[in-house]
Amino acid sequence: MRFAMRLKAGPGGEKPSGAESCCMGVNSQGQVRFYTSCAGYLFGFDIDGTRLWRTPTGCGSACNMRCVGQRLFMTTSNGTAACVDVTDEAIEQARRGKLAEVRTTTSLPTPPKPAGK
């Protein structure tokens, strides 16, 4: 399967430059979702190319992204490593104005020690 989609200038004036970061994921109903970043905004699209949502990142433009489950992990142009909840429930809550709490840390958590060590 090959998925191709032309990005065009957005309502906020963001313009694709060819350096956009993109990735694909699957929602809880098994529907393919396409995520991209341009000029400090994140976009979600369905498999037909219909834009489902647009939101500012608040932390620069994504340099790379990876979808694991329904979490979108990215590093951004200002050095931020971020995780975005892209579940249908989180997107719907955001549309209604209820945004998730942003948590910031300056260090990575210490991984747990393996059992028996």
User: What is the β-strand count?
Assistant: 7
Major beta sheet, specifics?
4 strands, antiparallel
CATH class of the domain at 21-95: Mainly Beta
Distance between the terminal alpha carbons, to the nearest Å?
Answer: 45 Å
Number of separate helices? 1
What does this structure look like?
- This protein is mainly β and 117 residues long.
- The protein has a domain at 21-95: Thrombin, subunit H.
- Helices cover 7% and strands 37% of the residues.
- A four-stranded antiparallel sheet has the order 1-2-3-4, with no helix packed on it. A three-stranded antiparallel sheet has the order 5-6-7, with no helix packed on it.
- The mean pLDDT is 79.
List keywords for this structure.
Thrombin, subunit H; single chain; four-stranded antiparallel beta sheet; 117 residues; 37% strand; globular; three-stranded antiparallel beta sheet; 1 helix; mainly beta
